[in-house]
Write a structure and sequence with these properties.
By secondary structure, this protein is an alpha/beta fold. Helix content is 54%, strand content 10%. Strand 6 (507-513) and strand 7 form a beta hairpin.
């Protein structure tokens, strides 16, 4: 047996490593952390293509190819090629007949010439009158038959792509077979409409007439789709012509079908196809700007491809509500762009599918949402982004991957108990195994040590100081107007990830505030949007933060405030929000009262000021004077760095 090795061409490489969907999520995370929604971030990823997969096209690459093909098709030729060729053959036949009549001095010859002179200008009407004319010239008769054969082939090819070649040299038996095929097809569609069609009926039909359908449909639905798209393209061709051209060609089509004995069957078929596929653009005109005249069959093929490309472009844009890659018709992609494009599309679908199946994305009531697993991943991404901007030499190496414990090691150990999370003391565990006699056969160097549960010991640790952390984030509309909202969301995610990974004993609460304040859960941070309302209710946010600190009286309090404006709202006794700008005396008084309560709780409040307004500066200076905290004025790009650095400084100080 001989083997031959070479490049694999039959679809995607089966030995290629699977694509890491986490890389796709990280790519989406850049957009989400910049303020985009999950659905828009996913759509942008699919448009750009998969990161690290340069050999795969994204939706934008496919769109460019589709638009180029549409442009080429529109510049391919004119729609009136069949009319032009029919007129040329008609003029040729009349000229040949005149040449035969001219030498004849008889009155009959003159009468014939007068009849030829009186033919209507309309090509269809002239052909209709000449259909019963007794040609004197054999060459003229042959030319006229050539004209009728041309019309028969073009008209039937416009509906059935495979009939042009079948009717190139027609004979009565061939035409009779076409008529029988049309009758059988209409009967099969009628049975299907009545619910009596079976796959065996279709198989018998294709066994008998399969050579007339080069598309090789696999079932009746595929056959209906093929015929309906072609019939709709024929109607669009007529709608795209001038009124005179449309009338002439329609008359030619009707005459040809009548003479072929197919008029009734074609009418039945057209009605059945329209009833099954009314969604197709049956009468939408198209404009072709080329110079080459196209035959009717070629023009219909061009318009059919244009309709395919138009629908494909709409699906590939993915800019309509509820858009999914499953909406893209793979058959249309294969027809327009080839097999490789289908593979590229499948790779994009696989990423969309894997993000859902692996628990990163969730579709709920038609809306795409991030899962808690995805939010944790994005938080880690945000934290890595923050740490990458820190000065490692000055602040220490934070990107530490080795295992740690929830406290400081004391140097002693104790037997392991179920539920212990302290690190295993490997040396003492192995010594216990050896002392128990768990050494394998031979007992020499390199012998295996068999361990039992009782041999394990864990290193004892002292409990670290825990912190109750409150991050207060301004959600007011001004944050979006100033372009600082995305940075605030990234900062919240980074702090949440930092506390969860490095300080699991801490209790963190993130509070968003606009006209009202509310606690933000970790799984809603990434998809969070600003509030298009008026009001910066820091008073309400401090009330909620105070309750969080009171629930953890033994924890060290840490309060961080991110805002771009002075307080302009407060919570009234009836629970409603009162807004006033410039800030009322009551709003400032109530907010500062909560600041004083935080001071009595020993909570240091550090404020990160994202605007340079004079009133905001005056307010935060008063907060610093009363509380002793610090005031920062970072740029939006460095907000995360400032907040995380300050939190780490506070934790080290504790």
């Amino acid at each position: 047996m001989a083997y031959r090795y070479g490049e694999y061409h039959d679809g995607p490489d089966p030995l290629a490593p699977p694509y890491d969907v986490r890389a796709a999520l990280d790519e989406m995370g850049d957009a989400i952390l910049s303020g985009s929604t999950p659905v828009h971030a996913l759509r942008d990823l699919l448009k750009r293509g998969l990161p690290g997969a340069q050999d795969r096209r994204g939706l934008d690459d496919m769109l460019r190819e589709v638009r180029r093909r549409r442009r080429d098709l529109r510049e391919r030729g004119r729609l009136d090629g069949t009319l032009e060729k029919a007129r040329a053959l008609l003029d040729k036949a009349i000229g040949q007949e005149r040449a035969e009549l001219f030498p004849d001095p008889s009155d009959e010859a003159r009468m014939r010439e007068a009849g030829l002179d009186a033919l209507p200008d309309d090509t269809a009407s002239a052909i209709q009158e000449l259909s019963t004319y007794d040609w004197r010239s054999g060459a003229a008769r042959q030319t006229f038959e050539e004209l009728r054969g041309l019309l028969r082939r073009e008209v039937l090819d416009a509906q059935f792509r495979g009939l042009r070649d079948a009717l190139a040299n027609p004979d009565p038996e061939a035409m009779e077979r076409v008529r029988q095929m049309m009758a059988d097809l209409n009967d099969m569609l009628d049975r299907d409409a009545q619910g009596r069609h079976t796959p065996a009926d279709f198989a018998a039909f294709m066994d008998k007439y399969g050579d007339l359908f080069p598309e090789k449909p696999r079932n009746l639905e595929e056959l209906v789709d093929i015929l309906a798209r072609r019939a709709a393209a024929t109607q669009r061709m007529l709608a795209s012509m001038t009124p005179r051209q449309r009338e002439e060609l329609s008359n030619l089509i009707n005459q040809t079908l009548e003479q072929a004995g197919l008029s009734d069957q074609m009418r039945r078929l057209g009605e059945a196809l329209y009833a099954r596929r009314p969604d197709l653009a049956w009468n939408a005109p198209e404009r072709l700007t080329g110079e080459e005249p196209l035959g009717m069959g070629d023009a219909v093929t061009a318009l059919e491809e244009l309709a395919d490309l138009t629908q494909l472009e709409t699906a590939l844009r993915q800019d309509y509500p509820g858009a999914r890659l499953d909406d893209v018709d793979e058959a249309a992609v294969r027809r327009a762009l080839g097999r490789s494009a289908v593979d590229d599309l499948e790779a994009l679908k696989r990423i969309e599918r894997e993000l859902e199946e692996q628990g990163y994305l969730l579709r709920r009531r038609g809306k795409l949402e991030l899962t808690p697993k995805a939010v944790r991943r994005l938080g880690e991404t945000a934290l890595r982004r923050v740490f990458s901007s820190l000065d490692a030499g000055r602040r220490g190496d934070h990107d530490q991957h080795d295992a740690g414990s929830a406290g400081e090691l004391t140097g002693s150990s104790r037997p392991w108990r179920f539920g212990d999370e302290q690190p295993i003391d490997v040396v003492r565990t192995l010594v216990n195994g050896v002392r128990r006699g768990g050494v394998g056969p031979g007992g020499g160097a390199g012998a295996a040590v068999r361990l039992s549960v009782d041999d394990f010991e864990v290193a004892e640790t002292e409990r670290r100081t825990a912190a109750a952390v409150c991050l207060l984030v301004d959600l007011s509309y001004s944050m979006a107007l100033r372009g600082t909202w995305a940075a605030a969301k990234q900062t919240a995610l980074a702090l949440q990830a930092l506390v969860a990974s490095k300080f699991p004993q801490d209790a963190v609460q993130i509070i968003g505030f606009s006209n009202y304040a509310r606690v933000l859960q970790p799984d809603e941070l990434a998809g969070l949007d600003w509030d298009m309302v008026q009001g910066t209710n820091l008073h309400h946010a401090l009330l909620i933060a105070g309750r969080h600190l009171d629930r953890h009286p033994d924890f060290e309090p840490v309060v961080l405030v991110v805002t771009d404006g002075e307080p302009t709202a407060h919570l009234m006794r009836n629970g409603r929000s009162a807004f006033e700008w410039p800030p009322s005396h009551e709003t400032l008084e109530l907010t500062l009262a909560e600041i004083d309560k935080m001071t009595r709780r020993r909570a240091t409040i550090n404020v990160f000021m994202l605007a340079a307004d004079d009133r905001l500066k005056e307010f935060v200076d008063e907060v610093a004077r009363r509380n002793g905290g610090r005031v920062f004025s970072p740029s939006a790009e460095r907000l995360g760095e400032y907040v995380v650095s300050d939190f780490l400084r506070l934790r080290r100080a504790r």
